[in-house]
Structures are given as C-alpha cells and as structure tokens.
Amino acid sequence: MSEAPLLRLRDLRVSFPGSAGELHAVGGVDLDLAAGEFLGVVGESGSGKTQLLLAMLGLNGERARVAGSIRFRDQELLGARGTAWQRLRGARIGMIFQDPLSALNPYLTIGMQLTEGVRRHQRLGKRAATHRALALLEAVQLGDGAQRLRQYPHELSGGMRQRIGIAMALICQPDVLLADEPTTALDVTVQAQILALLRELRDSTGVALVLVTHDLGVIAEVADRVCVMYAGRIVEQAPVAELFRASRHPYTEALRHSLLSLKEPLPERLPTIGGHPPDPAALPPGCAFAPRCQYVFTRCRSETPALTPINTGHTRACFHDGPLGRLGTDGN
Amino acid sequence: MNPPLLSVRDLAVRYPVDTAAGRVWLQALGGVSFELAAGECLGLVGESGSGKSTLARALLRLVPASGGSAWFRGADLLKLRGAKLRAIREHLQMVFQDPQSALDPRMTVGQIIGEPLREFRPGLDAHGREQCVLAMMQRVGLLPVHLHRYPHEFSGGQAQRIGIARALILEPVLLLCDEPISALDVSIKSQLSNLLKDLQQQLKLAMLFIAHDLSAVRFSCDRVLVLYLGRVMELASRASLYSAARHPYTQALLQAIPQADPQRPGRLRPALVGEAPSPLAPPSGCVFRNRCPLAIPRCAAEVPELRKVSDNLVACHRAEETGPA
After folding, report:
1. 3-state DSSP: chain A helix, strand, coil percent, rounded to 5?
2. Are B218 and A259 in contact (CB under 8 A)?
3. Residues of A in contact with B257 (CB under 8 A)
4. What ipTM does the predicted assembly reach?
5. Of the partner residues A195, A244, A258, the one whose CB lies closest to the CB of residue B187
6. pTM of structure
7. What Rg value do the Cα atoms of chain B yield, rounded?
8. Which residues of chain A does B157 touch, with a Cβ-Cβ cutoff of 8 Å?
9. Of A289, A246, A215, nearest to A40 (Cα)?
10. In whole angstroms, what is the distance from residue A293 CA to residue A274 CA?
C-alpha cells in the first residue's frame, strides 16, 4: 500500500463492563483500509467482528469503553465530539445492515428514507435529492424507480429491501461502506445477486468496502483481502487468493475445512475442531485459540502471539512454525 | 422391496390470508409426493416460501393439510386424532432450528430430555428415567454434570445437542430436522453434522433433513428433494443430484453456493435474476418459469409433471436438454 490508508486502526479495543468482570469484545486490532479496497472480515459469534465495525461508526454505545486509535484520512475519530461523528456517519462512511427490514422505518416511504441523508448532509433540495435517488436505484438494479420511491418497506421483497439499504448507504457518495452480514438473511440465489452487486458498485464508484461475515465462502466470492478474527483479535490477514492457497493459522485452516467443495468425494466424517468459541468475559491466558488448537504447545498457553508478517501482505498470530494439516474428524 | 416407512401422496397445505380484497388462499404446498425408507435420510431443500417447513409441520399436525395422505406405521398421519395421534408421536420426533427457543428455560436439562419419558413410559420411576437420560446425554456428547443445569448456560451447539437428546429419548424411527445446524457457528456445524450422521446410522433412524441450501444436506442425505413455491422440482439420489442435476432451479441453487476458490472462473456470476414470486400469485404453468433461463411458451401453459429423466425425477418440460450442470 503506497498511498496513505483511508481508515487506520491502531490497537483498537472495545470492552463492556460485565457482572463477571470486563468483557473484551475487541482486544487490540491494527487494520488499514485502502481507498477502493474490498476487505472481508470473517469470524464466528463473539469474534468481535460486529463491534469492530460499529467502532468505525462510533456506535458501540454508551456503556462501551473504546480505546486506541481510529483515523479517517487525517482525522482522529476516537474521542472526537459527537458532531464530528455525525458529519462523517452516512456522509463519508456508510453502513449496510444485516436485516434490511429492521433497518428501515416502516412508516416512511422508501423515497423519504433514501433522500434523508443526502438532504441533511449535502443540503440538496428535494428535486435534486429525488434525482440522485432515482439514479441510485438504477445503480442497485431496482427497476420502476419512481414507483419504488412511493412504496413502503413492507411492499418489497427481502432482496429489494437490501438493494434499498445499499442505495441508502451510497447516496452521499461515501468513501467507505461497512456491511454487517448483508446477505445472511437472504436466500442463496439472492445472496449471489447482492454480492455481485456490491463488487460492481465498488468497481464503478471506487468506494472501499468492509464486509463482515461468518461465511468464508462469501469472502472468497467478493473480497480482495481477508482478516480472520477470533476472540476479538485478528489472527490472520492476507490477500484472498493467498489465504485460500496458503493459510498459516490453525483457526483459518479449520474454517477452510468447514467449507466443503461440492466436487470432491464425500468424506466419511467432516473435519472438526472441538470445543466452542471462548466466552469474551473469560478469555484464556495466552492465545485464545489454544484450548481448541491441534498444534498447541506450552508457550501458547501463557503468551499471546502478535500478528507477524510471513509474506507480502500476509500476517498471522501463531507460534506454530511447522506445516498444518493435522485437523481431526472427531469433534464429539 | 420393503414397504416404505413414510409414504406421502399429494400433500397439500393452504393458508387463509385476509387482504383488502377479502380472504384469499395461499397455496403453501401444492401436492407433494415422496417415500422414505426405514433408516434413510431425505433432504428437503428450498428457499423461503418453498413450503419446506410447512411440510414438516403438516406431518406433525401442527398445521392442517388440505389434501393428500401420509402413511406411517399403518396409519394416515393426516387423519389421526386424539389418543392415536399422541401415541404415534412416540415414533416421530422433531429437532428445531433455534435450539434455545425450543427449550423451556425454567426446566433443567435432565427434565427437558426426560419429559417425553414421563408421558410415554409411565412404568419408569425417577431413577430409571435418570438412567435413560444420562445414557442419551452421553450419546449426544453431553456430560453428566450438565444434568441439573439450565438451557441458558449452554452455547448454541450444546443446546442443539439437548434438543437432539430430547427428540431421541423415546427411540423414534423417524426424525424431522428443521434446519438443525443453520443457526450454529461454522466450527460447530461440522460437529453436529457428524453427530447426526452417527446417530442416524447407530439408531437406524429415518430422517427428513430440511435446509435452505444444498451444501447443508450433502453430507447427511441419501436422497434430496428440491422444492420451489410448494412444488417438487427435482428428486434424486445424492450422487446424481450433485453431479448431474437436471432441473434449471437445482442447477441454479448449486451455482449459488459460495465456493472456497477465489480464482475459479464464474466467481460472482449470479445464476438467477429476480426473486421467488409471492405464493399468493404463483405463475401459471411451471411456477419457476418467470426466473428460468430456459422457459418457453409451453412452460406458461402447462404444469410440468414430475417424470423420470435419466436417474432423476424432474418437473421440467426441457429436462432432456439440460444435461449435467
């Protein structure tokens, strides 16, 4: 990356006070996002992927303790005033939500919701805003634009609503688009359409995208670069082709094995990793993946591995140096 | 050949829907037929609105069928009443998608798993029940210390093990699984898939395995039935369905599965445009025709019957031309 990154996260930490002590949702994340890049963030529940995304919008909530640094271009956002966030949110950084129905107001027409942001942030008049909205509906491949603007969310199908959600996130022509599991609630055939659309929009508008998902297959379909998160930290980060060819973290290896190709002969048993993701309120000392890891040794249980470069653009946080490929099939 | 364990013929379900224009009927299932042999696992796959969950609910009599029959152990499941209906539930059990919401939060794990025994094994005393429950818990990978805990103390994967243990405690011959692993984390899904397969083989269970995409059922099922808008599109053995699907919808479903190969040609090429139409206003003829890349005028005029094309049963006028995907 020669240019300065658009977004630059350093030692980002998000935690919440809990009855059993501090709950660490994000435990020290360094991340750069370049202009126009499509970044995929993959993790299971409790991996901190959603809190990471919300931190980039300043939306972790009042109870959250957020520490570290989030720079957008030249501006430090952590500790910035509420008004600074408001100027940025929706205008420079857009967000697409998992469930488009609950992200839309059922009492307002699509037109009112779609144009609200651009009228507020860019002081566009009603006509100009409507004009922009119609162009965007075309960009997200929704036909009958004029009619859509008069409709209410319940009159649209799930896929159409998500297209509206994407149009809404794009209407102020932001530099960054954050998407939290944008296709999880959709049918598989519609998921393929929405993923292709996101990729096309990135190519045509140059917006940088951060897509958070639990599905490594979705990442393989769209992303340029992948971050794998586990228990609030990035455990591996690589260009997408490299990650799928030569991942070097045992957890990434396990995730890859959970995606079975439809072509290969059917295995007798599926490869598994035992146990389950750790409780963010009671993280083990050392590497959080150690209790489930096939390659664990003494050091892993006392010391947390740092994210270290192993190839161009490829980093990982693991002490194991030998080959991978020892995944068992006995998960019970 | 042995008679099938479950024989479903022309099963139809419709729901009344009140609209501004008065009451209309939503045809959720429009005549579905299939057979299931003892010990066999059949996958039921379809997107939202396909009727897959309605089918399971109709078999369990949670929704009334509007037509057809479902023969199971010498009786039509759709016509049983009262004591006979309750009695047959011993042999026919269900595993739900969201394990947490399917478990009573005020009961301990032991009580949840043992509850069916109270109803169906009145001769068993408390000690006998506990022995049965503990044996079943071990089978599904739960520990004896879990006996007196409550559902909220468990992760999603563990909670689903509790749901499976409850469903199996009466040793049913048929298990209906409605998306049993969809809500679970990726690393937990394979554990539960292996468990279900082991149990199916050890207990010689027949299973109906419902899922919304074809990748979820491939590992578990002997045969797969693909539903779209309440109609059967294709029914085939696993090997034939995944290597030589004949229906354009099945082919599209296969293509839509995200693949772990970022450099494969065809990355990001959606196979279908649009979405399934409302089941309140299905297209005439073939219900899939308005999204089908192969549709011809005949498809609008004539409902394609399910017929044998090479090794598969396919409901498509052009199935001879589709060839393996």
Report:
1. 35, 25, 45
2. no
3. 188, 217, 262
4. 0.85
5. A258
6. 0.89
7. 21
8. 276
9. A215
10. 9
What pLDDT, in 10s, does the model give residues A18-66? 887 889 999 999 999 999 999 999 998 889 999 999 999 999 999 999 9
Amino acid sitting at position A152: Y
Q: What is the b/e burial string over A30-58, where b = at least 16 CB atoms within 10 angstroms of the residue's CB?
A: bbbbbbbbbbbbbbbbbbbbbbbbbbbbb
User: Which of A213, A18, A258 minimizes the C-alpha distance to A96?
Assistant: A213
Tell me which H or E stretch contains B240. Answer: helix B238-244
Task: Give the H or E element holding residue B214.
Answer: helix B214-218
CA–CA distance, B68 with A304 (Å, rounded to integer): 62
Listed residue (B54, B71, B72) closest to B63, CA to CA: B54
CB-based contact, A187 to chain B, within 8 Å: yes
Tokens representing A53?
Answer: 């995304």
Contact A12, A234 (CB under 8 A): no
3-state SS assignment for residue B309: strand
Residue A276 in contact with partner chain B when CB distance is under 8 A:
yes
The pLDDT tens digits for A124-171 are 899 999 999 999 999 898 888 899 999 999 988 888 999 999 999 999
In eight-state DSSP terms, residue B271 is: S
Using the Cβ of B138 and the Cβ atoms of chain A, whether some distance falls under 8 Å is answered with no
For residues A79 and A69, what is the distance between their CA atoms, to the nearest angstrom? 9
- Is a pLDDT exceeding 70 seen at residue A100? yes
The one-character DSSP state at A21 is: E
Q: Token match 């090997």: residue?
A: B239
Q: So what's the pLDDT on residue A103?
A: 84
What confidence tens digit (pLDDT) does each residue in B81-110 have? 999 999 999 999 999 888 888 899 999 999
Does A215 contact B252 at a Cβ distance shorter than 8 Å? no
Three-state DSSP at A226 gives: strand
pLDDT of the residue at A331 = 40
A217 vs B312: CA distance, rounded Å: 28
Chain A contacts of B190, Cβ < 8 Å?
A: 257-258, 270-272, 331
Handedness of CA B153, B159, B165, B166 (dihedral sign): positive
Please report, as a single letter, which amino acid is at residue A70.
I
Report residue A327's pLDDT band, with 50, 70 and 90 as the boundaries.
Answer: low
Per-window interface: A 11-50 vs B, CB < 8 A: 44-45
Helix (H, G, I), strand (E, B) or coil at A152: coil
Residue A251, number of CB atoms within 10 A of its CB: 28
**pLDDT value of residue A265:** 78
pLDDT digits (tens, 9 = 90+) for B209-229: 999 889 888 988 999 999 999
Which residues of chain A neighbour B212 with C-beta distances below 8 Å? 187-188
